[in-house]
Fold:
Amino acid sequence: MKLNYLKFGTTGLCWLFGTTLLLAQQLTDQSEIKLNDLTAFNAAGKSWTIAEKVISDPRNENELKATKGSGILVNITSNKMKGSDLLTNAVHGNIILELDYLMAKNSNSGIYLQGNYEVQLKDSWGVLQPMSSDNGGIYERWDDARPEGSKGFEGYAPRQNASKAPGLWQHLKIAFQAPKFDSTGKKTANARVLAVELNGVLVQDNVELFGPTGGAADKEKPLGPLRLQGDHGSVAFRNIKISKLPEEQINVNNRGGGDADPIYIDAPSNTMIRSFVNYAPKLLAVHAISVGSPLKTHYSYDLDNGLLLQGWHGEFIDATPMWDGRGNGTSRARGAVTSFVKKATPALAQLATVQTTWPADSTGSGFKTKGYIIDNEDRPQFKYNIYGAEVTDIITVSNDGKGLNRSINIDKTVPNLYVLLANASSIEELAKGYYLVDGQSYYLELDKGAPKPIIRDANGGKELIILLDKQLNYSISF
Structure:
């Protein structure tokens, strides 16, 4: 029997042709493409490099700035450097591919499985009705012989737009079933994209691919290389992992899983739901409100601490665990979630000095929630008392649906009262009043005229705190 060999990184792997058995010098289910250099790839063009860190300002078109080092594969294009596609030396059949990627503003890329079937990567931040050409879509097939307007066909839009902002790391996981051929080379079964998860959200489910997508590198075959598109804009990749596709996943009709009859809540207009919210590993807010917007950007708020817990793009709420049967009171976000807090602490605190440890709870502050009032657009304005003053906390979705605007207002001055803007693994100032937070998870931007915030060390991470006088305005993009 003929063996067809597959190598990724420094680990030797091979697919046994006609089966799903994965062989190696040492039996393994996973291998990572090492990004110490470009040796895993075939004839890399000049636009491709290896870096230690990549930064992209979402306000600047197609901009990536790379720091020398290893661990990140970077493609930087410009008017002077067009860029080119990159192919692995290795070839693959049935696989699970998992990686992180980062897009520059208005950039466009893609992952061609076996060089032929493209899962689209694109800056689709804020798109309300995604198409097959948007992030997470399966790009169209193409036939110039077809009539105008129908040359592109059989593209598959993502189920929802789970995209993050350019310059932020996004996570992609693809389960792929290769086409099958008989001993004469005749195709007996089409390729399938069994699942695509974008930032933890299932956006493609068991899609049959009747032929190569537009721009395919070659005719269909049992094995082919991964191809990373590099001629449409700047993009970066890291943590590229290849896993064996389990036997039980082959030829399965549906991989969506989950509840047989889920209870979903949409937000065709501004919508609120009170529930428990799991906002971080093993952390539960028991007096939380989730607020949905028709702009497909939503958030959860903790009434017990005045905390903005999380935000997400995509669909609104899965209330199945809350209402199915006896329920447990918990709702789940249905989109791509970005967490804004690491633990439950008061949003505001009076500090003796700028180095005073942030309090773990509201003891001694006189904190008392006053609920919320509804504005003329059915949006809540949260109210609570603290240190003898009344706070009004107003959070709204930005007009373009790309993030959140927040205004914290207090009815009288409290000496040395600070706002905890962020508690994160990392906080980096990109420009005056503009910060990249928590390992490139989200951006925070202060309104002009705000006082200078302080970045300080805290419990192995960083805190961003700022003095509150009467009003503080800032925005979060994610």
User: Anything to note?
Assistant: The mean pLDDT is 90. Residues 303 and 463 are 21 Å apart (CA to CA). The chain has one helix and 40 strands. The domain at 3-249 is CATH 2.60.120.560 (Jelly Rolls).
